[in-house]
What we know:
This protein is of the alpha/beta class. It has ten helices and 13 strands.
Amino acid sequence: xxxxxxxxxxxxxxxxxxxxxxxxxxxxxxxxxxxxxxxxxxxxxxxxxxxxxxxxxxxxxxxxxxxxxxxxxxxxxxxxxxxxxxxxxxxxxxxxxxxxxxxxxxxxxxxxxxxxxxxxxxxxxxxxxxxxxxxxxxxxxxxxxxxxxxxxxxxxxxxxxxxxxxxxxxxxxxxxxxxxxxxxxxxxxxxxxxxxxxxxxxxxxxxxxxxxxxxxxxxxxxxxxxxxxxxxxxxxxxxxxxxxxxxxxxxxxxxxxxxxxxxxxxxxxxxxxxxxxxxxxxxxxxxxxxxxxxxxxxxxxxxxxxxxxxxxxxxxxxxxxxxxx
Length: 325
Ligand SMILES: NC(=O)c1ccc[n+]([C@@H]2O[C@H](COP(=O)([O-])OP(=O)(O)OC[C@H]3O[C@@H](n4cnc5c(N)ncnc54)[C@H](OP(=O)(O)O)[C@@H]3O)[C@@H](O)[C@H]2O)c1
């Protein structure tokens, strides 16, 4: 990308292969995950220097080592989140300290699908608000990337889970995770989201509202999120797929019942190598044992990265979108 803009600013170009600096490795990328943050950077929501190679996560094989690398070897299969130069490329430079080992038997495609959304679902459900059997949780966009993984983690914790999907076509994907049809609210069926969604949530929680709401949609849903919580509940605003939430009055937290509001981001929950590896091991173990499933909702060649962005921005995608090299 040479400038911010719509998906059309993504162009496949030739570049010289990168070199690894101290503490870094060069990886031959097998697959790169597509994430909303890539679209925020592309469109100018997050300001970045240009030219820019997008891509925050991926998986591949280590091709060369920079000086002082002791924890990663040539030929290792690794994945990464937020620790590489752009992953939408044939080669990426990854910080060795942040390399996530890919277990034997796990494909590089699945490994590429997990770091960002899997680690995010992990910290949201284990750390931002630690879910348990006493809790009820509202999870938006449960057919989406983070949504499918967070829903499975919440169910595994024994939490009462209420989910949303944008349209009827996505209900099946959420039922397949183990959510009863009665706990899936289809947003397109609501005449007034800000009023009807909280009412639907309260109807499913004995009139109380949920303990925690995981809202990655943002602008369109934030008012409904606050109104769906029980007193002292927590609003976890972790994204803005529909746009960023405008400034708001903290008195609203008071009015809705002494609510908590947090706006978390992944980097703060993988700030040390130990925390990163602990979360990654939990996610990869879940995939290995079959207790966690990731569904690949679309595969695009690198040259069609613009179409991959259109797929997630148009609200058509389900599960994880992957670019392959
Ligand atoms: N804070 C963090 O650490 C962190 C890390 C990773 C991702 N995120 C955020 O998490 C959110 C979900 O990310 P994801 O990669 O898993 O995406 P995704 O869920 O696969 O896609 C976003 C979903 O949001 C829903 N949506 C509602 N209104 C929308 C609109 N106007 N435009 C587009 N989508 C809309 C759609 O589901 P329905 O049609 O079913 O409503 C869509 O499928 C994003 O906001 C992302 O920025 C945050």
